[in-house]
């Protein structure tokens, strides 16, 4: 239950808070639920507030008159205070925080995912008439059936994923070529797919069915043009 920090909650609301998509993405990766406290309702996270008070009383107050000359030295002192605090029996429960962690929390904890979370940025985009979207000055294809549709884009350092209504509809390796296009054949409409399959070698092979001389003629015609389409 976090506060309504801007990096986690895009828009605070008593009933339906709008969460930062990257923050939500990370929480889902680690199997956590994000339930922000209601605005101006500190009692929603009373345990957290109590934890801050305990840290101030048993760590900050103990170390307030000491001088430290490095971060490592400070962390070592904090660790000692924390060990004493966690091993100290609590008055009401007659058990220490360490005992409760070992008997209650640790057995219930889930293992971490095999891979750490890869930072991702989220964008909203609209599919262009050429069934591509522009992300970071590069164009990526999506299924042609989604022309003019609004989609969500998840971008990492290595991958790009496209979602529509929560369903992934496309995935590409990220490209850093400005103005370039990354297109998958299965995203093309049938007529574009057929056109893309025509190549100089296919023309020559097709001409060869008529005869070797025809194949040589087509090859020479294609060689005189800077682009095969002009032949």
TrEMBL record:
Listed GO biological process terms: DNA integration
Pfam families for this protein: Mu-transpos_C_2
Integrase catalytic domain: residues covered: 1-105
Protein's name according to its UniProt entry: Integrase catalytic domain-containing protein
Organism, as annotated: marine sediment metagenome
Lineage of origin: unclassified sequences, metagenomes, ecological metagenomes
